[in-house]
Amino acid sequence: AQEQKIGNYALGPEGLKKALAETGSHILVMDLYAKTMIKQPNVNLSNIDLGSEGGELIKNIHLNQELSRINANYWLDTAKPQIQKTARNIVNYDEQFQNYYDTLVDTVQKKDKAGLKEGINDLITTINTNSKEVT
Predict the structure, then answer these.
(1) Confidence band for 58, pLDDT divided at 50, 70 and 90
(2) Where are the domains of the chain?
(3) Pair 72, 33: CB distance under 8 Å
(4) What separation in angstroms does the CA of 48 have from each of 41, 52, 54, 57, 101?
(5) What are the counts of helices (DSSP H) followed by strands (DSSP E) for the chain?
(6) Which letter, b or e, does each residue of 2-18 get, where b requires 16 or more Cβ atoms within 10 Å of its Cβ?
(7) How many Cα atoms occupy the beta-carbon half-sphere of 14 within 13 Å?
(8) Are 107 and 72 in contact (CB under 8 A)?
């Protein structure tokens, strides 16, 4: 298989494996951050004199902490599962393509237009199904 390099990304089996491994590493970091944010209590600044605008500052800090918790829960409950499903779909499609490849080459060599069309349509159907799952 041919590798094509675009910017920092290599397109092809090895580039795909590397990208998926990096995605897994990033997911672990995001999980750690999200779980830390959810467990972290609101900052207590009541014993510190923050001047006349202290009340507003504390209110804004607490609002930002709450927004961080909302985003952390969104990551854990929605974004992460979608990313993981997309990664699985990519791997599954790669396997499907690899399984079809020799058959497709054979249909081309035999000039079997119907068989080639059927194989390509199967791959297109998988692509369309997977693309509908990406939001």
Answers:
(1) very high
(2) 4-132
(3) yes
(4) 17, 12, 9, 12, 68
(5) 4, 2
(6) eeeeeeeebeeeebbee
(7) 6
(8) no
